[in-house]
Amino acid sequence: MWSWAFSLVLLLSGALRWSSVSGGLALTVDLHNDTTIHINRTESAESKCEVCVGNSCQSSVTLQNSTEVEFTCQQPENIFTVEIVRHVVCNNTCDTNITPEQHPSLQNFSRTFTWNVRVPDQNSIILDFTKTGLRQIWPTESCQDKHVYTVSTGASTVGRFCRTGTIKGMQMPLEGSVSLQVPGQEQLNPSTFGVSVGDEITLLAIINVSLPEEESSQEFFSPNYPGSFPDRELVRWFFHVPPKYYSTMRILNYTESRCQKDDTRLEYQRNGKTVVKPLNEAQLSEHQGSFNLSLRSCLRRSLTAVLSLHFKISAIKRGSEVRCNVDLTMEEGLELHIKKKKPTSACILKFSSLNQEMVTISSVKASLLSFIDCSEEDLLLTINQTIACSQQKGCASSKFSLKVPPLDKCLPGILQEVSWHLYTPQDGAVELVSPMGSLQQSLPGQKCNSSVLLTMTEHEQQGMTVGQFCPQGHIRNVQIQSNITVTASPSDGRDLKQITSPLLEGSFLESIKERYIFNVMPKKDVSMLVATPGWPAGMSPQSTVSWIVSFPSHFEALVEFTNVSQVSCVNRHTCIEVQKQSSRGETYSWRMDEKPKTVVMEESFFLNMSNCKPVKGSFSVVSQITLLKRKNKVLSIALSVVSVLLVLMVIAFAVVCIINRKKKKKQKSPEVSVYNPNGHAFLPGLHGVPTTTGDDDHVYHCIDDTMVYGHLLKHGMEMNEFEPAVDSYQAFTGPMERQPLTGPRENTQLEVGVYRPFTAPQNAPEVPNRSPGQGGHPRCHDQQKDEKEMSGDKCLQNQVHTTPDLKRAPLADPEEEEDSEVPL
């Protein structure tokens, strides 16, 4: 619709008219100096339409002057294309701005504006696209505004471009051409570019690219892409990078031919230095400042082979670059690995001016690294160190420390792992001791509270883990007859660079009896767990392990087997053995078909285990050792005996009490001790009650109350009712016999069971009177006086036979009498 409207406008203005001869379209073409117009019928057109100049009609025509042409068809714009060529010849100086010319009569045709530029020898053509800028595109790609530029030099096409891009200029030797393609029925939007003369160059082309001061990305192609880049040629891109911006070159696709001479390579030039990289290697990235990138081709062996390159340049603004000189020459056998935690992070790691995802630095020489926008969390560091002993004599007594090597403060990143590879001599072993005194094995139910976890693995057993340990536990040292690797890793995600003290002290040993030996000293009342090497995967085949458990003599150890996994063996069998360290010690052992039992060891012991060559399953055991205070058996036995004796005594005492009570019930009157001046032994109550004599000598005249109530005297003293006479001597004032009884006694042998009457003495001594302060009751006389008034001077008569003329006789307490024995 728009094309017909535009044709109508041209027709009314006289530029177009309908031919009365051919019935086709006739138009007038105006030409300027140095301009040639080619009107060609497309090869794919099926129409036989022709273009006529005068009486000559052909499939194509070349116009060099303003001419009227006629077409034999009514819509020639669908069949013919128009190429408008202008020749620009520059002398020694040439500063020309080129702008495509409008040709209104050819507006409906697909047009190509071509400018052929030539300069004198030993010069070059400089094309300036500063005003518009170009962006290189695929050979088959179109531009949004439908204006496509093509730049060529000689027989090579530098590339196809769209307006509004980062390419600001080009430089080509001697001659070159610039073409602008505008499709039919598309109005021309002219843009100006400059042409000037430059110094001679030997390159195919130089392309100047200015990256914007913002994050950007631009793709580029080698000349003739996807065709082959010419042999033994060089094309160069010069990239202007804004300050504080870092650029990265990434190859998206390439093809490479086998070279007969020279080689194909990429050359980077920056700050006067040249870096050469083959196409199959990682290219420079994240480098600051402007640089040159050159593609150099070789002489191909086969012309059918193709050299092509498709790459992308991106730029991003970064912070300042931090350089760090890492020197590990003081640490023998050390390697430092630095790796980006996330490849897509903004952190830039550079080694030898090249952007790297991972860098390995050895202790052979110092290395210079660069870091851009890298924080501690962006990089992960690991250290590997090798400690080897090749000859037993040279290192049997040498010791070494496993400590974190110091790193330069300029080196960012988190040190997440440090590994020491320990190589022992043949048949040798390695011993490891914690500088803190002991180690603890990390197991379920026995977690480590330390910030560092030490993992020991074997080299021979395909990296089998011996166990995981941490400082401060029950294990005094570890001995392993194998080449091992000890790896330190943080258990809480901390940085190992903060650890400055040694983690382990080690030494090489000649040989040990077992494959693994652990020296253990348990703590009181604390259960300790130990597991076989390789737990839970199982011990290595035909290996042995021994725990040397030591503790003081006044303790005992409770050994329990909490988790046992057995196997099926080809020959031999697995074994678990608990043996006292003394030569005559008791031994407990269990084979694989027996369930180990809990044992109590009263002295230091060995806990030994051995594995067979298993057919099925894995042999692994978790043991629990608890140190307890030993019980004193002698004391226990003595206490038991004493307890039994006390029980027997209590029983005997109870029996005696029962018998005594029965005696009390049988006695009708209490026993009274009587003084016998004749010297005859007499115990009342044993031979019955004696008969009275004929006289009244056996009758008391008066009985003192203190004698009758003597048991109350003791109670009164306890109640402090009076003060008894204590520690005072009282002389005896009664009559005394001047001569002792010397007469013979008859029948000194008393007959048992025969009653003999009691005979009163002839001259009985008088019992002295006691004052109240000397043990008499203070109320005795008053009581006697009252009783005389009431009974007519009669005193209370005691019914027990007594000695005549005895005025006062004290009465013993019944309970005290029962307890006292009277000699016969």
What's the layout of helices and strands?
Blueprint: H1 2-13, E1 16-18, E2 25-29, E3 35-41, E4 51-53, E5 56-58, E6 60-63, E7 67-71, E8 80-89, E9 95-98, E10 110-118, E11 123-128, E12 134-137, E13 148-153, E14 156-163, E15 167-173, E16 175-182, E17 193-199, E18 205-210, E19 216-221, E20 234-240, E21 245-255, E22 259-261, E23 265-270, E24 273-277, E25 287-288, E26 291-296, E27 299-300, E28 308-317, E29 321-326, E30 334-340, E31 348-351, E32 354-355, E33 358-362, E34 367-372, E35 379-388, H2 392-395, E36 399-402, E37 414-423, E38 429-433, E39 439-441, E40 452-458, E41 465-471, E42 475-480, E43 484-490, E44 504-509, E45 516-520, E46 527-531, E47 544-549, E48 555-569, E49 575-580, E50 587-591, E51 599-601, E52 605-610, E53 614-629, H3 633-666, H4 705-708, H5 710-718, H6 780-791, H7 814-819
Parallel strand pairs: 8-10, 18-20, 35-37, 45-47
Antiparallel strand pairs: 1-2, 2-7, 3-6, 3-8, 4-5, 4-7, 9-17, 10-16, 11-15, 11-17, 12-14, 13-14, 13-16, 15-18, 19-28, 20-26, 21-25, 21-28, 22-27, 23-24, 23-26, 29-34, 30-33, 30-35, 31-32, 31-34, 36-44, 37-43, 38-42, 38-44, 39-41, 40-41, 40-43, 42-45, 46-53, 47-52, 48-51, 48-53, 49-50, 49-52
Describe this structure in words.
Strands 9-17-11-15-18-20-26-23-24 form a nine-stranded mixed sheet, with no helix packed on it. Strands 36-44-38-42-45-47-52-49-50 form a nine-stranded mixed sheet, with no helix packed on it. Strands 6-3-8-10-16-13-14-12 form an eight-stranded mixed sheet, with no helix packed on it. The chain is mainly beta and 824 residues long.
